[in-house]
Amino acid sequence: MQQELAELKSLIIQTLEANGQLAKIRASIRASVFNVVDSQDNHEKISPFFSENKKIQSIKELETGRELLELIKEFLKFYEMSYTNSIFSSEANLREEINRDTISKRLHINIEDKNKPLLHYILIQAQKNQKLQQSQSTKTFSSIISSQEMFSPQKSISSQMSKSKPLIGVSQQEFLKKQKEQFNLLQEQENKRRQKEVQKKQREELQHQEEIKILKLKKEKEENQLQEERLKLEKQKLEQIKMNQELKQKSLEIELQRQEQLNQESELKQQQLDLQKKLIEQQQLAQEIQENKLRQQFEETQKEEQKKLLSIQQNLNETEQKLNMILQEKTKISDELNQIKKQILVENNKLNQLIEKNQLEEVNLEKLKQQLTIQQENKLKIENDQNAIQQEVIKSQNEKKTIQDQIEKLRQQLKEEEQNLQSFKQNKTQEVQELEEKFKQFQFDKNELDKKLGQLNIQQKELQSQIELENKLKIEISQTNEKFEIKKETISNQIQELQKENQDLKEERKLLLLQIKGLENQLNEAQIEIDFFKNKELMGDCVTSEIETFSSTIKQKGSEVEAKAAIEQNLETKGEKREYNEDYDSQFDHQYKFQN
């Protein structure tokens, strides 16, 4: 039983791990423990995680570093990610509580809807700014091109040359030199301006290329993560298949063990019947031996016969007393077993109540485990009581063996007496003459012996009446056994009905598993569509409203999957109840057979 319970525990733990519910419970426990430990620490102290991580310290040194960390913490707090929030706050050294309104005022964020985090509004503002910058850049580029076409440097120089009229003589040469110098200066300025523009364009192109590389790396990372998640899902599916196969194998092994137990119990019944027959034969032999003894002793001597009869009667009384004691002990054992059965029924009721509470409150798992350990201890006590009962039965068997040894001793005594008789016959021929003289006295003694024989016959009748009472008791025991077998048949019918219900529940579970697989396929398709929308969003083709509607549909599908998982868990708990009841019935049958 203990091994079966341990196997059931391991199977339940594995199924909970496969469904992901055990991970949720562990995460909630870790978060609560971490929060308690973090609240006990001094808030003014610097976290050891923060002192070890130098990158977060560099973020804190920036002007907008604290605001960035507060936005992330607000996002985690908004979606109630308590475990990740506690770890993030300790690593970023943000143990103080955050107010959403103060952050929105500092960053000048207009909160239109309270059902969305602040990062959502910042993303919307960034997208709007990108669109405005693109429109402004197109306008400025067109204006620059038009200005370059309208105002070229050569035309400006020619206009200046045309405006300035040449002078006569030296003044004309000086004027020409000045114009050349001005022309050279203008060309140098234009060349510098062009070089600066070329350098700016090169820098912008380099930045653009770096951004493209970063985006490619991000995409590759996301693809790798998706592949890893898919591999994990496939592994989980394979593990579930293995778990189902192991469950089937273990159920078959349990059925084989039950069949073996039934065969052993039938063999024990046959052995008990054989022992009863042997006891009856031995009793008959003992009675025959006693009668033969009495006859021989009456013929030989009076005193020896009386002594032996008294000893035999004492032995019979002792055996009867021992038998009565054994019957009393059996009745006591049956009463104790009934009490134990009642206790087991009470404990089963308690277990059913605990299982119902477990369906309502997953948080009380640890308490249930403690109660299970207590119940196991009670079962161990019950098993110890059963062992004690077995020891008592072994003692009774030993007493029976002692009685058999006494009977064998009596047989040996009879053989010795026969030898003595032979010697007595030889001596009797010599003492015939003496017996003739004592014949008269012998007749007188014979009359007294007849009286004593009458008394012995009365005692034999009393013994026969006691034997009849024992037979009546045996008949009553057989009647109680028949009643108990009828009850057992009714219980077996109930067990068969429960097994049929269990099979129906298993079929329903298979249908639910197929539905869950369909929903998982739908979720995979939805994730592919999410990736597609994310790529579109990065390219700037998708609208945020479409993404929100799509994410709401995905959440609905996720809630459906969780509901199916809860139904499957209820089915598993019902199956466990039935399996436990079947184990109890087999244990109960074994106890009854042991009594018989």
Automatic annotation (TrEMBL):
<keyword id="KW-0175">Coiled coil</keyword>
<dbReference type="InterPro" id="IPR018993">
    <property type="entry name" value="FOP_dimerisation-dom_N"/>
</dbReference>
<feature type="domain" description="FGFR1 oncogene partner (FOP) N-terminal dimerisation">
    <location>
        <begin position="47"/>
        <end position="124"/>
    </location>
</feature>
<dbReference type="GO" id="GO:0034453">
    <property type="term" value="P:microtubule anchoring"/>
</dbReference>
<dbReference type="Pfam" id="PF09398">
    <property type="entry name" value="FOP_dimer"/>
</dbReference>
<keyword id="KW-0963">Cytoplasm</keyword>
<dbReference type="GO" id="GO:0005815">
    <property type="term" value="C:microtubule organizing center"/>
</dbReference>
<keyword id="KW-0206">Cytoskeleton</keyword>
<feature type="coiled-coil region">
    <location>
        <begin position="186"/>
        <end position="536"/>
    </location>
</feature>
<protein>
    <recommendedName>
        <fullName>FGFR1 oncogene partner (FOP) N-terminal dimerisation domain-containing protein</fullName>
    </recommendedName>
</protein>
